[in-house]
Design brief:
Distance between the termini: 94 Å
CATH topology of the largest domain: hpI Integrase, Chain A
Order of helices and strands: EEEHHHHHHEEHHHEEEHHHHH
CATH superfamily of the largest domain: Intergrase catalytic core
Structural class: mainly alpha
Shape: globular
Strand content: 5-15%
CATH class of the largest domain: Mainly Alpha
Bound molecules: zinc ion
Largest sheet: 3 strands, antiparallel
Number of domains: 2
Length: 384
């Protein structure tokens, strides 16, 4: 039986003219051109006018993919069905190359380009009819594009393209994105939950952990029995253990969150909608499930994942970028910081233990710094 060493592989710059080049992959004991990969990279550079640097990046990814196919003796056809195993291998292989991230496992955001290269490669093979419809089916689903309605091929396997929170803070959803999510909701419940995330800066775990008794939507000057707070509609975030779906409230002790008028109305709409859920009558939770498609009566507590999926689906239906619920909390934080809400006040609004946690929201512009200096001087010297 013929046994070779693990196949060696290289990428190589191919100069076509003085100014035009692309990158290709060589592999095997004698380092020969990998024909189908070369065909794709060539097509990318000259058929699709992609940059030389793109072909270099793709060549690097396809070199590793080709080596993996070789190690496992997989044809392109079979490798398509095993792509999730390849992704698993990438996820569990620390970076060998020097530089940032060396020795660490790759993040989803760095796996995205590898998948893009492989998906592009397979679409090319499909165009050339080098792989069967079955292999294409293993990799892609046809789905209508949410914005245009045109049917497109969507990869079945996707990774989260966002950089992880460790490499920077989660971006805030803009006011327009928040409004688009609200507009796209189909139920009063969802509208109210999205509003609580953005307009009250609640965390997902806090929304699903709210009990009906935590919500005191009484006008200013009135109180609820057992609660002395009289400054207007509000809710209480209480630390409780034992959420049936494991949601955690990260606050310590009890926090009072003022609830603005529009959210009060949305909650009233949800209370009316809730009456139509057979199982909801006895439920202690503020937000519960609707009746299920297979006859469940509804009224069950929600998990955090459910709300994350909801927000993500709303963003897709609205045709905007991916939105994670925490980006709505950041909307609140950034807006408050822009309005110069005092640090200690914002600390309480966001339920932060440490006053420095809000620093991510505070990047004052030169104009605001100049304005503040003038305001202080006006106090000291009197207005000019
Ligand atoms: Zn209260």
């Amino acid at each position: 039986m013929f046994t070779a060493d693990r196949p060696a592989a290289e990428i190589l710059r191919v100069e076509v003219t003085d100014t035009l080049a692309y990158w290709t992959v060589l592999a095997g004991p004698t380092l020969t051109v990998v024909e189908d990969v070369d065909s794709f990279l060539c097509h990318l550079r000259f058929g699709r006018a992609r940059a030389e640097s793109t072909t270099k990046t793709y060549a690097g990814h396809l070199k590793r993919f080709h080596a993996w196919c070789g190690e496992h003796d997989l044809s392109r056809e079979h490798a398509a069905a095993e792509l999730s195993h390849y992704l698993m291998k990438l996820r569990t292989t620390p970076r060998l190359t020097s530089g940032r991230g060396q020795g660490r496992l790759p993040q989803d955001s760095t796996l995205g380009p590898a998948l893009a290269a492989i998906h592009g490669f397979y679409l090319h093979l499909a165009d050339l009819r080098r792989i069967s419809a079955k292999a294409v089916d293993a990799l892609f689903v046809t789905a209508p594009h949410p914005a245009t309605g045109k049917v497109v091929l969507e990869p079945r396997i996707r990774v989260d393209p966002r950089p992880s929170h460790a490499s920077g803070r989660a971006p805030a959803a803009s006011h327009e994105e928040f409004a688009a999510l609200l507009r796209t909701t189909k139920t009063a419940r969802d509208r109210c939950m999205v509003a609580l995330l953005g307009a009250c800066a609640l965390r997902v775990g806090q929304v699903v952990g709210l009990l009906r008794e935590d919500i005191h939507l009484v006008p200013a000057g009135s109180t609820v029995p057992g609660c002395p707070y009289s400054l207007g509609p509000h809710l209480h975030l209480k630390k409780r253990d034992g959420h049936p779906r494991g949601a955690a409230n990260k606050n310590r002790g009890t926090v009072v969150v003022p609830v603005p008028g529009p959210v009060v109305m949305l909650y009233a709409d949800w209370m009316r909608e809730r009456l139509s859920i057979p199982g909801a009558g006895e439920a202690i939770w503020a937000f519960v499930s609707f009746p299920g498609p297979t006859g469940e009566p509804g009224g069950q507590v929600l998990g955090t994942r459910r709300v994350q999926d909801l927000v993500s689906d709303l963003a897709r239906d609205a045709g905007i970028r991916h939105i994670h619920p925490h980006m709505l909390r950041h909307t609140f934080g950034e807006t408050a910081a822009d309005l110069d809400v005092a640090c200690d006040v914002l600390q309480r609004l966001l339920g932060h233990r440490d006053v420095a946690s809000q620093n991510v929201y505070r990047n004052p512009s030169d104009a605001r710094v100049a304005h503040a200096a003038l305001a202080v001087n006006d106090k000291i010297f009197g207005p000019a």
